Structures are given as structure tokens and as C-alpha cells.
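Weekly structure sync, notes
Attendees: PL (lead), two postdocs, one rotation student
Agenda item 3: pending single-chain targets
PL asked that the sequence for the first pending target be pasted directly into the notes so everyone works from the same version. It is reproduced below exactly as submitted, 140 residues in total.
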Amino acid sequence: MRKFNSGKITFEYPESWEVEKADILSNPDCIATLSKGSENLINAVMFPTATNLDDYKIFMEDAISDDGGVILTSDFVQIGDRNAIKLLANMDTPEINFDIHTFVFIEDGNIYIFEMRTLDTSGESEREFKNMIDSFEILK
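Predicted structure, written out during the meeting:
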């Protein structure tokens, strides 16, 4: 396992994943981008927010549906001592069909969103992503 540390957050990730240069020009809130081959991409963003998990869950579901995605599951979960949203959606475009796995945390006025877009149907990337989320820590 490797350890990612942005100075604001930290998490562990498998050797099979690569940390990419975060695209802060088009997404200044991006704090981490990881990839595994050409079929798996994780983006993590963080920004100040006044919202709560209840309201953000509705907003996120609406945004995915408005983009043509199908929400397969969307639940409130407990990860360690944190409350979170766990969402699974499928996006089917003329070019590609992929799943979107998302975890959202809100803590101390900041929102942390981890999103994995994947073509992997074996479950391996999903398990690795969940392990990353389980090791997620906010640095104080």
C-alpha cells in the first residue's frame, strides 16, 4: 500500500493505482486524481460548504439524473466515525457505459467528495476504492 497525503487529507491506496497530476486549472477544488489503467479514474475534491448531507444527497441525485445517469443506490452510511453518503450510478452515453461510485463527507464546514468512474465490472476496483475511503483521514 502507498499513502497519499495532500497536506489536508490522507488515505492509503494500492500499488496498482497511480497518482495523476490534479487538474486544478479546470477544477481548482481537486485535491487528488488517481487512475488504474484507462478504465478507472478517481477524483477527490474539497471545498467549503454550508450544506448538510441530507440536502447534498438530493442535489447530487438530481445532478446525476439531469446528466442522464441512473442512480442504482444512494444511502447514508457510517464509515469509521463519520457519516457519509454512498452513491452508485450508471452513466450510459453513445461513447461509453460506466459506473460512478461516490462517497461524500461533510465536516467542519468542508465537503469532501470522492468519485470513481469505472468500466470494471469484476468488483476489484470497487473494493480497492472502498478500502481507500476506509483509510481516509482529514488532517487538522
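Discussion points:
- The mean pLDDT is 95.
- The first strand starts at residue 2 and ends at 5.
Action: rotation student to compare against the earlier draft before next sync.
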